[in-house]
Amino acid sequence: MLVNATEMLLKARDGHYGVPQFNINNLEWTKAVLTACEQTKSPVILGVSEGAGKYMTGFKTVAAMVSAMVDSMGITVPVALHLDHGTYEGCKACVEAGFSSIMFDGSHYPIEENVEKTKELVALAHAHGMSIEAEVGSIGGVEDGVVGSGEIADPAECASITALGIDFLAAGIGNIHGVYPANWKGLDFEALDRIHKATNNIPLVLHGGTGIPDEMIAKAISLGVCKININTECQLVFAEATRKYIEAGKD
Predict the structure, then answer these.
(1) Structural domain of residue 38, as residue ranges?
(2) Residue 170: its pLDDT value, please?
(3) Numbered residues of the known binding site for Zn(2+)
(4) What is the mean pLDDT of residues 10-31?
(5) Which of 62, 95, 139, 229 has the fewest beta carbons under 10 Å from its own?
(6) φ and ψ at residue 80, rounded to 5 degrees
């Protein structure tokens, strides 16, 4: 049975640890993530981009597959199925499809429009027992074909979005999607501290977890981050394993 992500992230906040979000693109990835999290007794959020959902023939297919796998594999840890960087239309589709959590990425809208759309989706998600994440300040890099400039989020705008009743917040603090360049300056912890203080202790989300040093992740957790998103590292490992398998000449 799928659960929303609110309870697991509140426990993480109070316990000062982070919950992983691993993005999934197919059955094989999903099985690997569920197996690892069951073995380590870790709650997990399975993230699905709109591109991955389309590849897997639609959000209804994804929800049915994940629900069946959780049941068939006897998974006992909490599992949330979460739309990652969703559009307004994508969020509505995932509500209907049976996801347990959504993220509305309205960071590219003017703050007034972001607030308006987020407010509507908060009501819709909560009416269906779902959790909802929102974003302020574009996360850098490329996500599902969308290029983010890597803004540092404005604490006042973060407070405005948080006041709408969202369950957790993604805020740009110098993190990026994809592989971090050699000249990356690191996370802006002063900005994170200001955002944390402005948002009433709401669980915060760190996108672009691949390549961030462990000590930076630990410090981010100490400043309110409760959810760490990981995708690129899985992409790289999957590609490398596939390459080695082919080069070994296996059937």
Answers:
(1) 6-247
(2) 95
(3) 85, 105, 135, 177, 207
(4) 98
(5) 95
(6) -110, 140
Domain assignment of residue 37, yes or no: yes
Closest alpha carbon to 184 in 208, 205, 155, 206? 208
| Contact (Cβ atoms closer than 8 angstroms) between residue 113 and residue 106 | yes
Q: Are 167 and 80 in contact (CB under 8 A)?
A: no
User: What is the DSSP track for 80-117?
Assistant: EEEEEEE-HHHHHHHHHHT-SEEEE--TTS-HHHHHHH
Coil, helix or strand at residue 134: strand
80, two tokens: 């949330």
Q: Has this prediction a pTM greater than 0.85?
A: yes
> What does the pLDDT look like over 36-58, one tens digit per residue?
999 999 999 999 999 999 999 99
Q: Active-site residues: which are they? A: 84
Overall number of domains in the chain = 1
Q: For residue 1, tell me if it sits in a domain.
A: no
- Name, in order, each residue with C-beta under 8 angstroms of 110's C-beta and a sequence gap of 6 or more: none
Task: Label the pairing between strands 141-143 and 146-148.
Answer: antiparallel
- What is the CATH classification number for the domain harbouring 37? 3.20.20.70
* Residues ≥6 apart with Cβ < 8 Å to 83: 47, 48, 50, 53, 59, 90, 91, 94, 99, 101, 102, 103
Take residue 178 and report the two structure tokens written for it.
Answer: 């994809």
CB 11 within 8 A of CB 220: no
What pLDDT, on the 0 to 100 scale, is given for residue 185?
84
Q: What are the binding residues? A: 85, 105, 135, 177-178, 207-210, 229-232
pLDDT tens, residue by residue, 79-127? 999 999 999 999 999 999 999 999 999 888 888 999 999 999 999 999 9
194: tokens are 């200001």
